[in-house]
Write a structure and sequence with these properties.
Number of strands: 0
Strand content: under 5%
Distance between the termini: 39 Å
Number of helices: 13
Radius of gyration: 18 Å
Structural class: mainly alpha
Shape: globular
Length: 216
């Protein structure tokens, strides 16, 4: 914690706070610290219990994802209200856990939109990597009915799932683009000139174009 305090930068904190992330540690320096510490699962619970955002991000980097029980991951996600902690926990830990599918099903139905957004993030992963057993048409039905009015974090995850579905599955691409056009979610999202818009129709078309051109 003393090392993290030394790394605290008020300018970094000011930028992060605009995204809802209450920490001031440069992520490159945080990763360097994690690389030096290597995997230390015994330290993870202590760091997590501090409630400090930088400490929790460090805990995620030095943990062993497969060591957590389903119940532990559920409790951790419910306490991870900071966007960066939530995203890293899903992407760096839960996706690598043997409990990912069970948690995906559970979280999708959770009444808390932040928890439900974790379920949609895991669903987007399956849409791309393991779609067998998913009803993709039904997913589009739910997105059509609920995404427009969903709270921000949930809406973002549902939109990501919509885009990934359109990119990865040509047979649903036209419907995914049409849904995006009609719902207009993130249509006016401010996007730097060198980045792809998160507006699903633009995102889908651009990624398909890159794939057809042989680009990643």
């Amino acid at each position: 914690m003393a090392e993290l305090a030394v790394l605290e930068d008020p300018k970094v904190r000011a930028v992060n706070l605009r995204h809802g992330d209450d920490h001031g540690v440069n992520l490159g320096e945080l990763r360097a610290l994690a690389k030096r510490l290597k995997k230390q699962p015994e330290l993870v619970p202590e760091l997590w219990r501090t409630g400090d955002t930088a400490a929790r991000l460090l805990a995620i980097l030095i943990c062993r994802p497969k060591s957590f029980s389903r119940e532990q991951l559920d409790v951790m996600l419910r306490s991870a209200r900071v966007p960066k902690v939530h995203d890293w926990l899903i992407n760096y830990v839960v996706k690598k856990s043997p409990h990912a599918e069970a948690l995906r099903r559970e979280w999708l139905l959770d009444p808390d939109p932040v928890i439900a957004s974790g379920g949609w993030a895991l669903t987007a992963e399956r849409v791309v990597k393991a779609p067998e057993g998913l009803d993709l048409a039904e997913l589009l039905d739910v997105i059509e009915a609920e995404m427009k009015e969903a709270p921000d974090r949930l809406q973002w995850s549902m939109n990501n799932c919509l885009a990934q579905l359109g990119i990865a599955h040509a047979e649903f691409r036209a419907r995914a683009i049409d849904l995006g056009e009609r719902l207009e979610v993130l249509k006016d999202y401010p996007t730097p000139a060198n980045c792809t818009s998160p507006f699903a129709p633009v995102w889908i078309r651009e990624m398909v174009r890159r794939q057809s051109a042989g680009h990643p």
